[in-house]
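Methods, example record. To illustrate the input and output format used throughout this study, we show the complete record for Tubulin-specific chaperone C. The sequence lines were provided to the predictor; the line carrying structure tokens was produced by it.
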Amino acid sequence: MDAMPEFNRESGFAGESGAVKIQERLQKRHQARAEDAERRKEAKESKSVAEEQGEYFCSSFYTERASIEELLSGCSGADRAAVALLLEEVTARTLQLQKFLNDSTLFLTQYELRKAQDALQKLQSSLAEAREEALPRKKFAFRARAKATDKAPAADAPPPDAGAPADSGGAKVDGAAESVQCSFSNMDSVCLTKTAEEIQKRDVLLTHLTNCKVRLFGSPSTLHLKHIDSCEILCGPVSSSVFIDHCRNSTLAIPCQQLRTHHTTDTKVYLHVTSRAIIEDCRGVSFAPFSWSYPTLEEDYAVSGLDQGRNNWSQVDDFNWLAAGTHSPNWSVIPEVSIHIADQFIYAAAVC
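The corresponding predicted structure is encoded as:
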């Protein structure tokens, strides 16, 4: 029998080489379909895993938060020694809850992340209020200057130091008492410094500062910045969260676990953050890696517990910008050339 001929227009048959080519095309098509099915399967499994992780996080996070709140409620009516022990345990567990949240940010939705951060912030505020109520720090205030008609002070009484900043646990912000242990407020065009010994893992509040240079050495527990205008603020590693509200025309250098920024404009942030930074109602905010250095920085990192090898300074979530795949116009990355110039400036600005 003669060999089968090549493909012929009239007969419509293909030769052996044509059959091989058809078989190859069928195999490639089958392989492509199999790969597509595998990708769909992996995507479905990945989505399922993320949903399971989210469900596990929510269950674990809110169960632990409720447990901490119950423990915190035990402070009411207890003696001072018992309250001190309870607050110590609550503080440790709250920090662990903060770390759990930071480690879970990669698979949480923006809604889940925002809800959990709000819940954690309320818990931290409750802890600060309970500490202030049960173990209040001594209030320190400067006596007002005596009026001309008042009786003159005794000869051996030291004059009030009117130039020193108020630093108390009862600072007020917008008419509301803030439970903080270190603070500078209502200052204009001055240089302000807190040493590591003064901070000692306390909550720090800076509010209503204009044209000020602030240097915070050591490791604060939390840092609150409110109503900051045209300031330079350099801070050592913050062991938990930094909250910024109504800041403009300023330069900030901060390492922390979590950063939440509200109502802030035209501000540069040199950042080390181990979770993802969050901005809301902001514009003109720019970010670069944290670059401040001072002699005890490594020791302060150790005290704070921050992971120096993990910095998500450019991973910013804008809660006012929900267009997927499109960069928010409200924040930007500081150009590399500007970063080098700023590095030199910040290094020179280690002290006022």
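Annotations derived from this record:
Residues 41-134 form a domain with the Methane Monooxygenase Hydroxylase; Chain G, domain 1 fold (CATH 1.20.58.1250).
Residues 139-180, 339-344 have pLDDT under 50 and may be disordered.
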